[in-house]
Amino acid sequence: MKYATACYYIVATAEASSNLARFDGVRYGYRAEGAEELRQMYMRSRAEGFGAEVKRRIMLGTYVLSSGYYDAYYDKALRVRTLIERDFRTAFAACDVVVTPTSPTTAFRLGEKMEDPLQMYLSDVYTITANLAGIPAVSVPCGMSDGLPVGLQILAPHFGEHVMLKAARALERE
């Protein structure tokens, strides 16, 4: 699981960095007012238009895609992603869906973890494999613990959404 988590954050931040590069205030995204030159407009637009989490992901993604680190991080993460995809294909040859927890903990109270990005990232640890494998997944409530909801995740093979949604509906009926 730790390799999948590292792989996901490497791939996700690299993709975020490259995809958000176009949000420069010229054609896409927020444009800061009052800039006297283009470079100043870029810098102010991004500083004002992106929140702390987006900036963090852009910086991490730029780092893993930079010269000298691409092979060490991003290329290896793509190889791990291929292994994860293969493992899911093998699993779905034997079953219709895979059921996992949605999170390692119950839901946390509103605003509780906002100052701790690591805890926020770790709460996604069980949902990241579906993103890496490129397979459909749905999270449904499955009960309560200490007055907070507990989620269950149902994963399906490519084009298996109908089976996944039937399973989710059956679970919700119970």
Indicate the topology.
Elements (H helix, E strand, L loop, with lengths): L1 H19 L17 H12 L2 H14 L4 H25 L3 E4 L15 H6 L5 H6 L3 E9 L2 E8 L5 H13 L1
Antiparallel strand pairs: 1-3, 2-3
Helix pairs in contact: 1-3, 1-4
Explained architecture:
With 174 residues, the chain is α+β, with helices and mostly antiparallel strands. Helices cover 55% and strands 12% of the residues. The protein contains 7 helices and 3 strands; from the N terminus they run H-H-H-H-E-H-H-E-E-H. It has a 3-stranded antiparallel beta sheet. A hairpin with a 2-residue loop joins strand 2 and strand 3. Helix 1 crosses helix 3 and helix 1 packs across helix 4. The longest helix has 25 residues. It is globular, with a radius of gyration of 20 Å. The mean pLDDT is 87.
The number of helical runs is 7
Low-confidence stretches: none
| Main sheet makeup | 3 strands, antiparallel
Report, as a whole number of angstroms, the end-to-end distance.
30 Å
- Write down the Rg: 20 Å
Helix content: 40-55%
Order of H and E elements: HHHHEHHEEH
Number of strands: 3
Shape: globular
Across the major sheet, the strand order is 1-3-2
What is the average of the pLDDT values? Answer: 87
- Strand-residue fraction? 5-15%
Features:
174 residues, alpha+beta, three-stranded antiparallel beta sheet, 3 strands
